[in-house]
Amino acid sequence: VLTVSMTVKAQNEVGKFSIAPTIGLNFATISEVENEFKLGPLFGATAEYGVLQQLGISIGAHYSMQGTRFKDGHGATKNLNYLNIPILANYYIWKGLSIKAGVQPSFLLSAKRGGDESIKDRCESLDVFIPIGISYEYENWVLDARYGFGLIRPSNINLKGKNSVIQLMVGYKFNL
To answer: What is the DSSP string of 3-68?
Structure first.
């Protein structure tokens, strides 16, 4: 009974497209390395198609500054800038509330160590993430929180770990 009441109140327009420009903040790190979260901007847009009342499929394009901040006493950083293409299934469990999961190819745009030293030629040009998250929509405003873990090591420069990022975003949804 609880499941039925939850899905009855789900909100998604079947057969309709929407687009949502978004802006947000990344808390990024690289696993298996002694480091701290690196803060970075995230912005782009997401398009969604309503497949069922409870299910939408979305695809996005986001600029995402990721990387890490090493605990070496000097605050050295590794800046990895990606173009992320999240492809997600959005399951609406309550009016405006959805859980999401999918796959996200991420293309490396630039990579720098410290200030300006380019290391792009020593980094993988592609990473594949598995994003999971939750979002809430209220009067066309969308709040989105995701966690994504990379499947490919970003570089072979003293790194054994993989990308890991928490993303917090806000956007405004336009129905098309």
So the answer is: HHHHHHT----TT-EEEEEEEEEEEEEETTSSEE-EEEEEEEEEEEEEEETTEEEEEEEEEEEEEE
- Asked if pLDDT for residue 10 goes beyond 50, the answer is no
Q: How far apart are CA 143 and CA 106, in angstroms?
A: 22
Q: Point out which residues pair with 147 in neighbouring strands.
A: 132, 166
Q: What is the pLDDT of residues 39-85, one digit of tens each?
A: 999 999 999 999 998 999 999 999 999 988 766 655 567 888 999 99
The amino acid at residue 69 is R
- Separation between Cα atoms, residue 61 and residue 38, nearest integer Å: 21
pTM above 0.70, yes or no: yes
CA–centroid distance for 158 within its chain: 25
